[in-house]
Amino acid sequence: MRKFAFLCFTGLLILAFGAIVYAQEPKLDFKASGFIDAQTLWYRNVTPGNPASGIYGTTVAADYRTPGAAAYDKSVAYLETRARLRFDAVMGKELSGTIFFEMDSSRWGEVSPAADQRNGLGYFAGDRGALEIKNVYIDFGLPYFGIPAPMTMRVGLQPLGIRPNMLVYTDGMGVTLGIKADPVTIAPLWFKALEGRDATADDVDVYGLHLSAKVEAFTLGAYGLFYDMKSYPFFTAVPAYGTVTDNYAEMWWLGLYADGKAGPVNLNFDFIYDDGRVKSRSNLRSVDYRGWATRLKVDYPWEKFNFGFVGMYASGADTRKTDSTGYANGTNREVKSFVVPPASEAGAIYGESLVLYSSWVDRGDSGIGDSLNYTAMCRGPIGGTWMAKFYGSYKVTPDYKVTLGAMYIGDTTKNGNTFGTARKADGVTLTDDKTVGWEFDIWNEIQIYKNLKYTIAGGIMTVGDALRFYQSAANVKDKPRTPWIITTNLTYNF
């Protein structure tokens, strides 16, 4: 597969440069864009964003999710900042290059790390090495050579994004094509997720095909992603030659979607299915993966109002058949939870909530259910849950909009709970509860200037049985105090 990808890439480059079809004198157009924000977070029993998670349950941010721990049942408050700066060097319609930087302060007044200063922008004395390279890529048009469709190619460190609020968004080295065969757009892709040792078959490659078409008032799409993971989980350090992980995996994600308008109603629909297997080189039992998720969003705008509904269901794991890792380890057999690919940031992007799921207000930097694992598959934003949400917004003035929302969240994990760890009377058997809780939210959006926006939002959630925790020392089930959050964001876009 490595040779195939190399030959395809080389062949396309030969096509691109084999003929000079754009002979006119180029003119450089240099563009800059980005944003700077400042946001506050104040909450209780809500975890910080992106806690690493396995198939079900949260395995870090234990201070916030363990009875008796430092932040459990206590309020937490801090400030954050992010800035992004993007440069585009455009040489006509056929050629451009992009360099995209990101700078983060995970806390105002943070303790700067001694070596790696990533996310250390908020250090009091300043002068931190917090500049990150997010994207570096080239876009160019390909000559037709008899193919009656415009074709483009993107090469370099670029976004891999397909339905990013549910499935995958990440940045990586890759090659993507765009073929416009009206009314269909065809987008093959290949990414190199891991090279490992050059002379060892320990690579991780991502292959995909994304099709979309405009049909009347709808955009219809279908896609497939194949992750060939000869190392699983991904190496976190380059191993010695001849050394590879015991586990390896092959995974498929297949999806359909529709976005559009039916009369006065706006509709968004998704269906995603994952299928594959985690295998062992030492002949441990393989683990089969089969999960699915679906989502329907309906919006009805009317004058200054908008009324909406979101329904979502994502399959959950069976705790009798897998542990929270999903690895081939001799006891795991099957994972039926919906999972997202390694390194997907869908959990932060989902944005349908303030307390349980991530929030768009604070860029996904909070949420009990927010899940991200850079080296392995995890349940992402929604695996093991279902929800029904009703909301309504009102444009009070041209510069101020208020939105109210209410949602019910259920648990789809079997013989256990997605978040909670409660046990039965024997102190061993996990309880299987169905209610995570009810959540009530309010969003206030204020446009101060054309390019300066302030948002303040707050949410509160009831604690259902599926959120109970087990205290082994006392042999009791503990319900955390009511989770809530108030968060604000001030953003200047340019």
Describe the structure.
The protein has 494 residues and is mainly β. It has a single domain (30-493), classed as Beta Barrel (Porin). The protein contains 3 helices and 21 strands. The protein has helices at 2-17, 62-65, 346-349, and strands at 28-44, 75-91, 95-105, 131-142, 151-162, 168-181, 184-194, 204-215, 218-229, 247-262, 265-280, 287-302, 305-314, 334-335, 385-397, 400-411, 435-449, 452-461, 469-471, 476-478, 484-493. The strands form 2 sheets. It has an 18-stranded antiparallel beta barrel. Strand 2 (75-91) and strand 3 (95-105) form a beta hairpin.
Task: Describe the secondary-structure layout.
Elements: H1 2-17, E1 28-44, H2 62-65, E2 75-91, E3 95-105, E4 131-142, E5 151-162, E6 168-181, E7 184-194, E8 204-215, E9 218-229, E10 247-262, E11 265-280, E12 287-302, E13 305-314, E14 334-335, H3 346-349, E15 385-397, E16 400-411, E17 435-449, E18 452-461, E19 469-471, E20 476-478, E21 484-493
Parallel strand pairs: 12-14
Antiparallel strand pairs: 1-2, 1-21, 2-3, 3-4, 4-5, 5-6, 6-7, 7-8, 8-9, 9-10, 10-11, 11-12, 12-13, 13-15, 15-16, 16-17, 17-18, 18-21, 19-20
In brief:
Helix content is 5%, strand content 49%. It contains 3 helices and 21 strands.
Order of helices and strands: HEHEEEEEEEEEEEEEHEEEEEEE
Q: Kindly state the mean pLDDT as a whole number?
A: 90
Largest sheet, in brief, is:
18 strands, antiparallel, barrel
The radius of gyration over CA amounts to: 24 Å
Strand content: over 45%
Examine the secondary-structure arrangement and name the CATH architecture.
Beta Barrel
Give helix % range. Answer: under 10%
Instruction: Provide the low-confidence segments as ranges.
Output: 14-23
Count of DSSP E strands?
21
The tally of structural domains comes to 1
From the N-terminal CA to the C-terminal CA, the straight-line distance is: 42 Å
Tally of DSSP helical segments: 3
